[in-house]
Every structure is written in structure tokens, then in C-alpha cells.
Design brief:
Blueprint (H helix, E strand, L loop, with lengths): L1 E3 L5 H12 L5 E3 L8 H6 L7 E4 L2 E4 L1 H11 L10 H22 L1 H12 L6 H22 L12 H15 L10 H11 L2 H7 L7
Parallel strand pairs: 1-2
Antiparallel strand pairs: 1-3, 3-4
């Protein structure tokens, strides 16, 4: 099994965490999106990361890959079995991928990606807006959803993987959740990122060199 995509990507990190939770390993090839590698291009028609090659079975998109891994390796379960809980977990997976990603990635994109990878200045005005206007709306919502160690039910799930993954990129940009204003969220993020599976994923290579 091969997994394509830089460890910097919150989406690649989702798959790395899921594999670690299930005690499975994949050869990690830390390419960036739109890499010219023919094998990667075959696995990801849109040039996006992550992409998976499981003995010739090719699949792209983090949520699709997590669904595939759940079906192939059902234990321990990362998708709740109860209907309402499963629906909520899938909702949080989508929320993390769409509503959260575009906002939480702004500090990382402007403080890490642009200056350190492309040699271009970041947009601190965009960072300031994300930190003062956009992220607080997300934090307020999540603060109201947290009622225990996990977002859905009493077990770790795709909901936790998808919501927590982007906070590592926020930390890499020198920012974090204000524990005074959002205490439940700050505690939840710290505990989730400290899980052994996340520790494994956070140590993944970020570039092929």
C-alpha cells in the first residue's frame, strides 16, 4: 500500500491517523499536489492529495480513502455504527474538509508555505482577518459541540480526525486556540493531537528530499 502526499497536508494527515489507529502501514511518498510523478498522477486524476495505491487499486480524496480503509479494516471502527452517530460523524468530516480548511489554513499558507516554500511574502492582513473574524466563528461552533473527549459518542472517530487535523497547521504558523475564550475546544485539540496515532502522523515526512 502506498500513500501519496506531503505530511504538511491536513488531508494526508487524516489518512495517516486512520492507518495508525487501525495498526496498518503504508509506504508514505510525501509529494506535493500536482507533482509530475506518473504513479501519483495515475492515482490522483485531479492532481490532489492524498492518493492511495493499494496493490493496484487507485483512489484519491481523503474521505473516500477513509471509507475504503474502514471497509477493508473494520476494527477498530472509525465510523460509528449507530445511524445518528454515523450521520454526525460524516457531517463533521465534511465540516472539517470544507468549512474549516479554507480558514484554518490561512495562517499556515501565509507564514509557512508562501515565504518558506515559494520565497514569496505572506499576506498578514489575510492572517489577521482569519484570526480575528473567521476562525472565532468556527471556534464558537465547536466549543458548543464538545461535550466530552470525542465529538460524536464515546469513541474516537472520523469526526475527531477531520476536525483536529488542521489545528496542527495552525500551530506550525505560531497560533493556537485561546484557552481562556474557548476552554473546551483548546483542551479537546490538545488531547486529540496527543493521541499516539496523531503523534505518528505528525512525524510523517513533509517532502521527498
Amino acid at each position: 500500500m502506498k500513500l501519496y502526499g506531503t505530511g504538511y497536508s491536513p488531508y494526508v494527515r487524516k489518512v495517516l491517523v486512520a492507518l495508525a489507529e487501525k495498526g496498518r502501514e503504508a509506504e508514505h511518498i510525501p509529494l506535493f499536489f500536482h507533482a509530475k510523478d506518473p504513479a501519483f498522477q495515475a492515482a490522483s486524476p485531479l492532481g490532489k492529495i492524498p492518493a492511495l495505491d493499494d496493490d493496484g487499486f487507485l483512489l484519491a480524496d481523503s474521505s473516500a480513502i477513509l471509507t475504503y480503509l474502514e471497509a477493508k479494516f473494520p476494527s477498530p471502527a472509525l465510523f460509528p455504527s449507530e445511524a445518528k452517530a454515523r450521520g454526525r460523524a460524516i457531517w463533521f468530516d465534511k465540516y472539517g474538509d470544507t468549512e474549516m480548511f479554507d480558514v484554518i489554513i490561512v495562517p499556515f499558507a501565509n507564514r509557512v508555505v508562501k515565504p518558506k516554500m515559494f520565497g514569496k511574502p505572506g499576506d498578514e492582513a489575510a492572517v489577521a482577518k482569519a484570526l480575528s473574524e473567521d476562525l472565532p466563528k468556527i471556534y464558537d461552533y465547536l466549543e458548543g459541540q464538545i461535550d466530552g473527549a470525542y465529538l460524536v459518542g464515546d469513541a474516537f472517530s472520523i469526526a475527531d480526525i477531520s476536525v483536529a487535523t488542521g489545528f496542527h497547521n495552525l500551530h506550525l504558523a505560531g497560533e493556537s486556540v485561546d484557552a481562556g475564550r474557548w476552554p473546551k475546544l483548546a483542551g479537546y485539540v490538545a488531547a486529540t493531537l496527543a493521541r499516539p496515532s496523531f503523534a505518528t502522523a505528525l512525524a510523517a515526512r513533509t517532502s521527498p528530499n
